[in-house]
Amino acid sequence: MADAGVALVASWLEKASNDLKTARIIGAAADGPLDTAIYHCQQAAEKSIKGYLVFRETAFEKSHDVVRLVRQAEAVDDRFAQFLGAAELLTPLAWQFRYPTDLVGEEPTRAQFDEALEHAQTVYDFVLNTLPAETHPA
Questions:
Q1: Cα-flanking dihedrals φ and ψ of residue 122, to 5°?
Q2: Backbone angles phi, psi at 59, to 5 degrees
């Protein structure tokens, strides 16, 4: 992979890492809005998988559908199948809590946030451990 490609993969993974950090910071604050924190969990998983797909030179559509991204990654590496359940949980978080509650329902619970964060971290760690060190964020 050319240097520009390696840098792009690292950029995707850096953004994913920043989303994880943001989710943790917000989630740890006594009055941290979990609707915002849980959104960053979805974003971290999405960007991690997109970074993997860029490394594997696999095109993907502009989408927040983590299930679709996992299926694309699974076509390249069948180990991604283990993340289908996590992807099903994470995908709706791109929109589920982003709008007023009268439009989408209740706010996320601490348990929902903790589960989303765990899944996002697991996906990120898997991608990082799958890709060579030169693609890892600084």
A1: -65, -45
A2: -70, 145
